[in-house]
User: Fold these one by one.
Assistant:
Number 1:
Amino acid sequence: MGQKYSNLVKNAVGRMVPTEVNGQKQIPFQGIGKYKPDARKYGPKIASCVDFPEDGNKQVASLKEALVKAGLKDGMTISTHHHFRNGDLLANKIFDIAKELGVKDLRWVPSASFPCHEHLIQYLEDGTIHHIEGSMNGPLGRFASHGKMKGLGVLRSHGGRYQAIQDGDVKVDITVIGAACADLFGNANGLYGPSASGLLGFALADSQYADKVIVVTDNMVPFPCIPWQIQGNYVDYTVQIDQVGIPEKIVSGTTQITKSPDRLLLAEMTAQFCLEAGIIRDGFSFQSGAGGTSLAVGDYFAKIMREKNIKARFARGGSNKYLVSMLEEGLIEYILDGQTFDLKGVQSMADNPNHVWTSPFTSYNYHGKGNFAGMVDVAILGATEVDVNFNANVVTHSDGLLLHGIGGWQNCLFSKTVILPIPLFRDRIPVVLDEVTTICGPGELIDVIVTERGIAINPKRKDLIEKVKDSNLPIKTIQELKEEAEKICGKPAKPDFDDELVAVIKWVDGTIIDSVRKVKS
Amino acid sequence: MSNKIATAGNTGKKVRSDCFVTLELKDSGGIQIEQKSKVQVLYGKVNIELCKDILKFYGIENAQLALEDKGALPLVIAARVEATVKQLIDTDKEYLLNFIEENNYTSEKEQFRFSRLYLPGNTPSMMLNAGIHDPNGIILDLEDSVAFSKKKEAQLVVRNALRGINFYGAERMVRINQFPKGLEDIKYLVPHNVHMLLVPKCEGAEQIKELEEKIEEIKKQHNIDRPVLLMPIIESALGVEKAFEIATASENVVALAIGLEDYTADLGTRRTNEAVESFYARTRLVNACKAARIQAIDSVFSDVGDMEALRENVKVSKGLGFEGMGCIHPRQIKVIHESFAPEPDEIEKAKKIVNAFIDATEKGLGVVSLGTKMIDPPVVKRAEKAISLAINLGLISENWREEFLNNEE
């Protein structure tokens, strides 16, 4: 796969990034909206019906047979998706098979990885997997952070992954799509069956652009599988296995609003800010996540909307029981769902025509003719660190370890107002700093930082500053917040990095916004 | 010197913002420090420096110290190390970090005490963000929430918290231990701008007098002239009987609180939601307080999940004449403040009365009247109190009268 990386240059946010990664040429981040590729989309091979069973039955006996038929060999790019989250059983199986077949140097492109994929560390060590392009959570991130991966990790947002596959930055040889429900032809959805997860949006790009597409399910239904979130016309092989996911680890029946008084306070302050800034008004829209604080913000929104008789046109996001109850109560007209977090969400998507499944293509893709993210009035997101220039980090911790993926975070930065409710410090670790360890989002897209000790508004949002200037909200400068954090925690030392890179962070347009360095052990 | 080992602090999976220190004095080998810290990369070096400095301060030259750190602030690490030192050597020296200037504010006899948030004295993680929830007061508790074996180290944590944690304007209270043990607590409190001491299980004026003598002694040693206010807690049948005597024991007694768990135990009955069993005690305490012109403060409401029940409870409490209540969870604070706040019609009535009073004063009239009705001075006073409360809670503006007069016209 060529050299791990070479030729570091300084990009538009002042970070040193390589111009070649795993043998592929790269473009350094040039600024928001600056880079526009002059090219055509990647074209997968033209298929012919002739090569497929006339009766539409594409089922093969096993996942192994499907992979062999798909031509699995050294150096290929294999993609999977995280609809089953920490209950995913497929990715581990795929690489068990690759190992059994003696295949080497695979590039794994998951839409996200979870702690359940710790199993794959052995294959990173023995050379079955060369490197990962996708989020690296927990154990895999730790492995990569210590420089143990053969290739360089590449992290992309959900929208960035769609863009990369569409543009041909990542050419997927074989994709394996796990589905809760499918037919023999390959139509599939995530709605019905023991492994129901809601939708299959993360697999859309792979189904459209991969050379070989395998659909695997534990709930094979007679044609037609309705709705066909994945269309069988893209699919080469279908496979039925006993179990694709562990239900209780896929969706939680118990997504709960945080009980932490500090986080509730953050959520309340965030909702109050949105009210005072005029963001919560009839017909508005918001992005909602599944974190405890994010759920609580939604709950405070609901309270305000009920009191003031306000209705939202739509909420975008990870759906959950709280969002669903807002939909059912009539506080929201539509849920545009990218990822369903609990069983209530799955149920609602199956039953309620106003609960609509979306994909990274419709919601996030930067190289499309627009996307939904920009139409959202307010996105409430998290961060591991923020700096005095409002740059934010979501992938590394202050000790330098790469422990999280980007998810849809970068994509959501394009909403009209971006608010990050974050504690000023976590167990003595300051969250507002002089400089973030890794820039995942440039400060010019981040508008408001809400901490329990004050709210900082990006100076370029004069409109917001004006709107809340007479409120009782504790408005401070970001510099003041940083100093307050340091006063309480002490000035933190910088982590000791090796010069060696372990991963790069892609921006939504495919350019490189930052690099992650190896931590010294 | 015989080799001995001492430990202090908290450890375990759920522990945050705290540390566990093990100290062993040695005969030779210098100072050896072994650190396992969650924030090693960011603060590992300064933690080691701090530990070394404390050992040096106590003249310890040979020792092995193990620091298991879960993101403790320096003031916590210092308290833990000092606690281990004091188990091994006999010393009165105190290792004090900076007293932060934000903690220099004072408290008044007459101020709102709707909410006071209890914080276990040996659990620093709960103290750090207590002030941001905006309680009227915070109580660093040395009594019931601290295990018997942890009493000594809690004194040091509370002292360091009074010096180094910003409680953002909340009245700085400490609940000391019961008599006579509580008398040993106060040297760790009085020199560090404690505003008020809560005196548990108070059963007579002599206890207050004894406590005050001890406070005066410490104040003299440290050249302190501001008062230390007192809130005795009545938690027994005898205490209830002596409520007025206690309320008038000193001018520094500004409120009495009632503790219902212990009181009902003393009665040999059980605490119920309807609280019929404590009705006498509560009204008796309120009466004693009003007679002594001090505040009557209610017990805590212990179901932290049920905000509606809390709201109802506060309404009853307010109705009986209580002017505040304890909180054991920050989310109770807002509900308590809202519920003690004057109701809209109460405020409207108060506006009319206060306006009439100002009118009468301006005209030099001795009698205040509203329409055909004469208004007695205590009614005016209560109305004034409601108005200042409403202003304080942001329910009306400070210039309410301008608006009021405009509307009258």
Number 2:
Amino acid sequence: MTPLAAPTTTILVTIDEKTYSADPGETILDVCKREGINIPTLCFLEGVSTVGACRLCLIEIEGTRKLLPACATVVAPFQKVKTNSDRLKKNRRMTLELLFSERNHICSVCVANYNCRLQDLAHEVGMDHVRFPYLFPDCNVDGTNKIYNIDHNRCIMCTKCVRTCDEVEGAHTWDVRGRGFESRIIADFDEAWGTSPTCTLCGKCVSVCPTGALWHKQSVQNNMKKSPEMVSELTAKRGRKG
Amino acid sequence: MSKKKLATVWLGGCSGCHMSLLDIDERLLELLKLVDIVKSPIVDTKEFPGVDVALVEGAITSDEHLHEIHNIRKKTKILVAFGDCAVTANVPSLRNPIPMKDVLSRAYIEAESVDKGQIPCDDAILKLLPRVMPLHEAVKVDVFIPGCPPSADLIFYVLSELVNGRIPVLDKERLRYG
């Protein structure tokens, strides 16, 4: 095995036929963001840990058969990366279709309509319909919190809320139960959000949620604006990067 | 060039897509130079005729819709899923996770406006399907136009392309759910 370059050396990587220099330890997504190369992301949030859960930022690396998430793949010397091949485009659309078919996403009656990362990405990749049968799972809406609601119909399990609550607010109210299709975001030990003794009502989870799954009670259809950058700015000011 | 035949159909939807179609205003007159609307909620035709293009609004909610969409497919060259209900099943599909018995009971017995109601069960009335479907789960769809409703400009673009023999492409500027 070739030893990795010494930490101080600059690494050269080729992304879509152009060569860029990167620092050791940087991810491919870091480099792309800096260089203005658009890679769609959904579960990535600057300032909290990376999970690589949504699979939208998948990229191709020459010599590797598997597609790898740009957010969780560290640059290596002379890597050749493709970010927008036909295979990737096909894959991104399929990933989005699977997300849409897995829960009950009904844009027209959603608080986040026109302000939704999932919806924006569907437009971006040209998803004119979903080829998989919709599963229409029976999902709860927890309205017990006095300021916010959580609607599991609209949740895509990106876990931005879980990571933000734990790593930024330090409350760890949110977590995940179950696996795969059955997995759900839970408050504490799967209790009503309204009676959670750990929730501080800070609302950071609501700000980072990319869809209409977490929302302010006073929001009505179409008018919920999200501000995930608030959490990124907060962590940057604390001198920490995800 | 002979005029193309256009049908517009209203299945399980709110007719908002048809309202948006009317919102193309005076441009309708330009279109009518190129097409004849031979079947529509605003045209008094009983049987569905053979057409070049059919815009189908709404989801498939009942046995009647299912029968109708198969009939439309047989007689249509280009079938267009018109609006979010046709493309995704949208609002009508809100009932899908709920057992049918509870849905009917809520509407016909428990509703605040109902006094001693009962669930209609006459053979003459349509039967709701256990699950509301978008069109493409039942038949092959050629063109999808999402939107709740699709904007008048988008409808005009799509129809202009179709009547001129082209298949419209909805890029990210034109694609719009909700």
Number 3:
Amino acid sequence: MLIFDRENWLNHRPWCWGVIAASVASTAWYVVYGLSGGSWSWPAGSSPPGFVFGAVAGLIMAFEMLLWPRKSLWRGLRIGRTKLWMTGHIWLGLLTVPLLLLHGSFRFNPSGSLLAVVLMWLMLLVALSGIFGVAMQNLIPRLMLERLPAETIASQISVVLEQYREEAERMVHATVGDSPLVSAGGVSGQPVVVERVRQVDVGRVQGRVVEAAVEVGYVPDSEPLLVFFNEMVHPYLRARPGSGGTLPLGSSRRASALFQGLAGRLRPDARPIVDRLADLCDQRRQFDLQARLHGWLHTWLGLHVAMSVALFVLMIAHIFLALKYV
Amino acid sequence: MSETSKLRKSRINLTYYRTPDALWRRRRRLIAAALVLSVGWFVVAPHWGRGRGDGVRLFRPSSLASKGAVARVHSTWDANCEACHLPFAPVVGSRWSPTIASDTAASNAKCQTCHTGPAHFTGQDAKDKAAGKNLLACAECHRDHRGSDASLISMDETSCTSCHRDLSRYAGLKIAAKSVTRFSANENEHPAFTPPAGVPGPDSGMVKFNHARHLTAGIRLDPKSDPFTFADLDERDRTRYGWKPGRDREAIQLRCETCHRLDRATPPTGTTLAVTAPKNTGDSMLPVSYENDCRACHPITFDAKAGNRTLPHGLKVPQMIEQLTEFYEAQAVKDDPAILRRPVPPRPIPGRSQTENSVRMDLIVSDRTLAALKRLFSSAIDETKRREQGIPLGRGGCVECHEVSLSTKPLVDLKAAEGLSIKPTVVRAIWFEGAKFDHAAHRALDCASCHAGAETSKDQSKLLLPGPADCVSCHAPATTDAQGHTRGGAGTSCVECHRYHEADQPAHGIGAASRKGTAQMSVEQFLEARPGLPR
């Protein structure tokens, strides 16, 4: 991830000016060449400027594709810093847009060469998806840091949720005791320890520490808790990650009201259990948000890479055919 | 209340990264699909058009490499790139791509399989070879892949001026201008129109002609003279000059088009038009010829006593003497038929002279022949003498129109007369050999709009050809003045007026032998564009 902020801008500035200067110089050459006949005519891709722009853009695209092996196959070799590779990938990738627009004479109409037009559109889509990705990678992690204190590894959300569900079930059954409402095989009557956690911020160190631990066992008249769990909490914790928003507990405001209502119907001894269930549901809501944000953060990359692969393969075909039938 | 970071960490299986997650699996599937689609397109398309699915544009072989549909005349080979292209040899030398393999001569040979013709201009190839440069490629000017309706011979002026703005490297060749930047009346941008070689300035056609007199009603030699009327013409020629019944005594009024006719014109009976290409498109003027345009008023009479007897046009002096001698001998026989009954020895008898009568007849015939020749070649026959001798107005023999070379000896006998000669005429079918001009397309204009002074010119040596200044009234970028009058707007592309390849053969049409390709093919060979295929 490459951050663009005031602190990092000094690193990006030379690249940015380089791309602008190269774009302006290329356009100037293109325009001068186009006017060299006395009146304007679009220089073809095989004209001197068109050919140079195409060749340079092709080399850049080859470099862009090398980021893939650099980040996977050659990771151990440490050929240059990844940050430098990423910076070059972004800025040189941006430079290919004006170069290829000039090389292709801004032709997006499929009446001409379909391959060339497909390449032009793919180039644009790859560039746009890359720009989108850079924007997402600069915005979403900050958002996640602010809004997702319970963030976990995205691929493990369903695993964690399953653990939450089991934990919640164990707490509820411990509280309810041997109620006929407890399904056969359910764990019941065993006391559980519920910890109260506090957020600690000391300088640049942040973390959560245990403030108090309360042991909760059987609490009489706790059947409403079991009913609430079975009807509300259990379905919510079992729902597929990212799809719990439609359930009653998917809304934090409604969940808060529901849990307050539940707490009012139970003895005070059961209050830590209700709070813990509310906390698990809150974490579940954060996981939903995390799943959505994670999708925005990473899905573009699949499209970007897939289109880049297609672009690279078709570019090689284009080079071969252009040289063969020039 | 929430869980600690430590507890949260403990919930994660530390080997989770070894199992690809859904996102990663989806990404791999997308990449695989992209690879399959892109490689598949490249692999399948070249084989797709063979007998199936050519309607699916995505899979047309040409959709991969072609930058646009070829012209309709080449559409048979739209999917067969190598019909015209040599692999890795650019068809246009100015392109940068593989310059090492650049060989336009080989690519040109591909074109010349079906189309041949002289080089763009004479001597160009030799100059390019000497300079170590690529030959000018056919495709440099004849650009294809611009759509099925695009013309292969139509191009914008920058296609020409990109080279013609500086032709200094072709110094020594026959070039009208070393630098042409656009069409205009400014000689720094476009040279003045250049008449053909041998016509440096004045008309060297060697035919005397007074336009002003011929365009005067009645074609009077002076205002007091009698007008030339339809009655002075042979009856067969009157209609051609606008005669109507009852107008025999009306003065003849010639117009430009009376003599200068388009090549589409219906020829008068018994005359020939086979001077220009037999295309009759109406874009060229037929050259003025004696038989078509002069004979009716200027018959070649040679003897007032011979009535309307004329000599054919175009004879050399010995042929004239022969024809005149035959005529006068026949006349002598007619006058004295007994001459035929006198015995003629099979061969001259040595020591015996011819008979007196025979000698006398020979003298009479040669005297009359000589007199007729003197009349035809006399430049001193003025109008008074013509009238005295009964020579009709405007019928003054050869010298009325032609330049003659007189004999170095006094014209005392026919031997001396053989020294007379008529200077050959040069009546051009095409004046600007490298240019084309469609007179029919400009028929709405009167002739004097471009040929200024044509109606008043008395000097045949003055060329009445238009120049760029006459053309730019219309052929220039459109402008509108303060009064709202529009000027210009007609095309200014070089190919509007210039001809190529056949500049030395301006009358050659597309079917000229010089345009025949280098190969004669069977239909199968033609469709495959491979002359080497077994028949």
Number 4:
Amino acid sequence: MPKIGVYVCHCGENIAGAVNIEEVMNYAKTLPDVVLVKNYLFMCSDPGQDIIKQDIKEGKVDRVVVAACTPRTHEPIFRDALESAGLNRYFLEMANIRDQDSWAHWHDKSGATEKAKRLIRSAVAKVTFAEPLEDRYGDMEKSVMVIGGGVAGMFAALDLANMGLKVYLVERQPSIGGMMIKLDKTFPTMDCSACILTPKMVEVAQHPNIELINYAEVDAVKGYVGNFEITVKKKARYIDWDKCTGCGVCTQICPARVPNEYNYNMDQRRAAYIEFPQAVPKKAVIDRPNCLYFKSMEKTGKPACQICEKGIPPKGIQGCPADAIKFDDKDEYINLKVGSVIITTGYKVMDKSHFKEYSPHSKDVVTAMEFERILSATGPTEGELKRPSDGTKPKTIAMISCVGSRDERYHSYCSKVCCMYMLKHARILKEKYPDIKLYLFFIDVRTAGKDFEEFYVYTRELGVKVIRGGRVSSVDVKPNGKLRVRGFDVDLCSPVELEADMVVLATAIEPATGTEELGRLFAATCGREGFLREVHTKLYPVETASKGVFLAGCVQGPKDIPESIAQSRAAASAAAALVIPGKIKFEAIIAEVDREKCSSCGVCVPLCPYGAIKLQEYKGKEKAYIEPALCAGCGVCASACPSMAITFHGFTTEQILAQIDALAEA
Amino acid sequence: MEEGGVNVIDLTQADESFVKELEALGADELRECIQCGKCGATCPMALAGLEFFIKRIVHAANLGLRDILLEDSSVWGCQSCNRCVEICPMDIKPYEVIQAIRRAAMKVESCPANTYEGLRNLYRFGHAVYPKGYEERRKKVGLPDKPPTVISNDEMRKKFQEILRNTILEEIAPFPLD
């Protein structure tokens, strides 16, 4: 016969304010096998836990029901209390008489009291059949993969590498650097973005513990936390990076000109190219779909161009001096074993083409990211401010915020960084060209952040015109080539318009292409807007739904550089805390197949959201087998099994039925 | 401005030199205004229902909307109560913006007619408000017919006028300073 102790928590006034504690206690004493009932103001406090521990140590109780709050936050605490007093930690049941009772029925005190009795009755019934369970441990691969070589990925990789862990940093582009390297300056400090980032890029590339895998993507994922087996596809570069010195000869003599995506197609690169001047590693790649050699080989079987390799001898032009051109290069697949993964694949900015009301066909209407490149010394105009249509210097520029953000047709969220980078652009321009006229149209000016408001006021002092309540309704191209901008100024309480030479659209930050697919490979889920979702916004901001897979930076949602770095270092710390001990604990609450009972129907296999179930040979037949390390304890398989061959430990059929009976009792 | 019967303010007419002029005329913290609206919530003119009240005036000043500000008579309705100055969280001294706009308006003779009358009275009598026939009423209650100011002291009045002639009034007064 079990000896059940029931401990009723007041949770200050949270429970006691609606539930009659004394009445509930008197009732609990009448329940079968309950040997004692105690109460306390805060059961989770140290003295509260001591009451339970003392009773266990003195042999008074050997099963515990805590009638308090939610097991989601407090079960681990009470389990630890049981364990420290020498009792199996799974001989605990919590009756949630706060969230599901006192809070929900605050104005019905007698109803809440009756419900508390039922919930306790049901918990007592369940704990009667509790079985002792043991947590298990598995081996942990002491390495981490960071996916995405932007500022977030780089900082995560560096922190992990400095802790002595092996890090694989996988980047889709030929160079690391991500979006930050494309920015001209960064708010609120006005640091030159490339100047502060390139030393970090070099540090990443030279770190002995970091293996940089550029121009590569994750292709397939097997395994689970502690033992991920990841296949990475290294895209064919058609240039041997062991030989390439980054001299750039091929990028100058290649005759195939292609829109340069690095500068948002505002200038051209060659088919053989180095992504940008400060690229790390500084290596060239050949863009196969645009390369004349490959185009002609596919059409005629004969090479029309091998200039990068051989040069143009009659003109005395030499080809690659390092003999690095490798037309027969192939995609390469490598398999890597890691204990944990951090996803930092960032974002992309929305294209202007969606916004017909803003004349997206006009070259003088640009997105803020394009404008960033126009301002950058490595951009299409080498940092000189020029109107894209005719190369003249604009005298009046209008900037429009919330383009695609705070807009139910596109993205309901605020992209968070636009207000500040619009002010940053304004400041860069005003400091360079004091006479330029700048009109910034905001719905609200959102400058929450350290030193941000001061930045805003300073920018206003430079003479930048701020129009609030002013998402522009239209941008039209006038016959003289200028842009007519129409908006509303809530401070003037009037419709306004102006004639601008250029219009900059602060288009929304959105998830990078392939975010959802990448998440799916790791069983990490996305939120409604397509960003990877953290487990809990406040308490678990870097964890994904998939154990051992962490996230950081804009892949989780719009954020600025300081926030991205803070989150990436938090993710690195969380991954290290998991990986460094070398062992991983698996909860005992998992499902197990009784293979004698299993009918081999296989219905459980596709149902498992974690891919933990497979059919395995057992006594000459295919039977279901659940990999304990992968099982997350959701219970789907156990409820679906027609032969009742699956035991869900901690929630056995016997326990659930006892619980239901107790609840249903009059 | 007028387009199809709808008033649209053309920001292209905004003139940065007007902002600079106002700064030079005493509104030197003007640009720091973040349009929080606190002044508008205390301004008696706004409370009285005047549409073009202090918050909007400061914003229009910041945009450099010279014509709108000089054509509208709202700044002359300010009661100089200074509540806005005491309450402004950015310390831009909104009343100083009003004063600066008045100064700018005076320079281009863009003020309501009664403004000039007040100014002329000030120059002539030392009082901006000088209702006729008040001497009789003063006598009735046992006061001297003129108050003990420059108005009752010719010598001091001349000195006072001399001081005024040494101000910008000499240039801008639309009446003879004799």
